[in-house]
Amino acid sequence: MSVLATITHFIAEEGGVSVDSEGIVTHSAFWPETAEIIYGGLASIIIFVLLAKFAGPALKKGLSGRTDKIQKELDSAANDKAAALTEAATVRQAKGDIGAERARLLAEAAAQAESLVADFDTRLEAEIADLHTRAAADIETAKGRQSDELRAEISRLSSAAAERAVAESIDDATHQQLIEAFIQKAGSMAGSASV
Amino acid sequence: MNDARIEGYAKALFEIARAEGSLDEVEDELFRFARSYESSDALRNALTDDMIPAAKRQAIVEDLLGGKATPTTTQLVSMVVGSGRGSDLPAIIDILVARASSSKNLEVAEARTAVPLTPDQEDRLRAALANATGKQVNLKVVVDPSVLGGIIATVGDTVIDGSVRTRLDQLKARL
Description:
Chain A has 195 residues and is mainly alpha-helical. Chain A has helices spanning 3-14, 34-169, 172-189, and strands at 17-19, 25-27.
């Protein structure tokens, strides 16, 4: 077969129609018939036009709404991010504040502790001084008491000794002298008796 | 015992003694017994112990005073002790003595001495106290060894103290 015949045969095969040697027409396995292509194309065009006319706006509106929604979500995400950043800044600031507050409280506690220690030292010194004073006073009191007790004991012993000595030294003559002296003394009072 | 009951007993004893015609002697004996009662814990405990029957207490009184005091004195003390008023005996007797003295316009004068006084000393002391107080006195002498020496005389509220005991106490106070 010549080259030309081969191309023609190929085109014919590509056109979907082949004709065998007996004149039997066989449709292409790939290509529809021309009329079908025309009708199908027109129908497709009509469908596309109808879709463009009736479904297009809704589709467009849907796409637009989805775009808006996505945009809103993006905006919301941006806002959330901004809020989060703000919150993070606040937290960081608060953290800084907490640190400062902690430092302030620690400083205050240290100052109070120092003050308490100083106050305690002062009171302790005063108490020790007071104890010293009271101890000294107690010692003096004890000395005085012992002295008083000693004096009382000496007095008691002296009195007992004097009484015994007097009792032993008073004989009958002395008794009579004392009685006579009393009678004379009472007799001389003359209405001026005193207790 | 309340004062009214003590007064009642004293008045009763006084009337009995006066009716018996031995008031002076009885009141003098009662006075001495009262002073002995005050100075003796054993006697005081025996005559005031409720655990001892009244008859036993009266027997003690009669043993003590029998033959040493007039029967009237013994019976009066026995009566008071038997009635359970032994603890009020000194108060009853003091009122009786004051009443007896008052009936004779006398003031009771108590003289405490370490040794007994002679009758002459009692007369002179009576006169001296009358001179000192301006009142006639019914002298009651109490021998009290704790006086040590001298006399402590009490006439009513007046006390004349010339005792060695008081001088020793003053010395002790100064010490």
